[in-house]
Amino acid sequence: MSDNRSGGPSTKQSLEALYEKMSTVVRANLERAGTLTEETLDRALKEARDWARQLKEQYGEDVPKVAEYLRRDFQEAVRQAGKQTRRSLDLDRIGVGILGFVQKMAERAGSQLESFASKLDERLTYKTGEVAGPGTLTCTQCSQHLSFDSASRIPPCPKCRNTTFRRGY
Q1: By C-alpha distance, which of 109, 31, 115, 26 is closest to 72?
Q2: Less packed terminus of the chain by CB within 10 Å, N or C?
Q3: Per-residue model confidence as pLDDT tens digits over 62-96
Q4: Domain extents for the chain?
């Protein structure tokens, strides 16, 4: 365990804990907004960053980095939910973690979700060392799956040591 003089997290779990706490703030703000648009996601992330900055001594400069991880994960969840909606599949099949939240929002704002998801057509890349929410990542090189039950740092691929992944459900 390192000390916290550098302004960074004092333990490996700190970044994951910050992700979980900020994710809770984002979800609460999005639920209050009642819609899921790029603007409401931006506002929710800003509020989460503002909230987390109050803990600057504990998390240092990790707040903006974690906010980007959350943006990526929410956008990917929206893209996947939109894809599922377009295929007319039951959204109950994707009800884990962030996706459970997106499911609720999709039921309330189907057309808004579809519009938002269409903006996220390009696949988002996840990299070793970043934090990702619950779900499965697939190695871009060998298709090995990594599954997470909670927010976790992404390790190199255990099969081929590749460092880039895509979200899979």
Answers
A1: 26
A2: N
A3: 888 888 898 888 887 777 766 655 554 444 444 34
A4: 12-123
